[in-house]
Specification:
The protein has about 160 residues and is α+β, with helices and mostly antiparallel strands. It contains two helices and seven strands, in the order αββββββαβ. The N and C termini lie far apart (about 75 Å).
Length: about 160
Amino acid sequence: MTIRLFRAARPFFLAPLATAAMAGLILMVGASAARAADMEVEISGVTTSGAGTGAQVLVAAFTGGEGWLRQPVAVGRAALSSAKAGVVTVRLTGLPDAPVGLSVFQDQNGNGKLDRNAMGMPIEPYAFSRQAQGNFGPPSFEQAALPAGTARHAIQLPAQN
């Protein structure tokens, strides 16, 4: 024998209405979470002197937490040959509707990696969004984070790292 203590009487026509409302709410939440944004990143301070064939500027966008500087959510690149007056523009697409931090470096030899010296220090120019700088390592995500929906951001590469 089962006893139901809090059984409320509902009119039969409310069940489909409640189901439809719940389905609409789920679709709205899912659509907003899946909404992707684009960002134009203008990188200045790009130098073409000493750059090899295939030299490029690489940009990666990261979300916070464990993914910061480990798992990019979007990447973009621009050939150094497209630089005008030391400036290139990279378009990132499919960014999540959440804060992101950017990492940029000038790949002078075109190998697709940030080259480092024997001590592990980068030897190619690099920078982060909001010109963030770390102490004895990269900046934290909070230092480099841009608000969700940022459509345009400028980053200055230093003359020499």
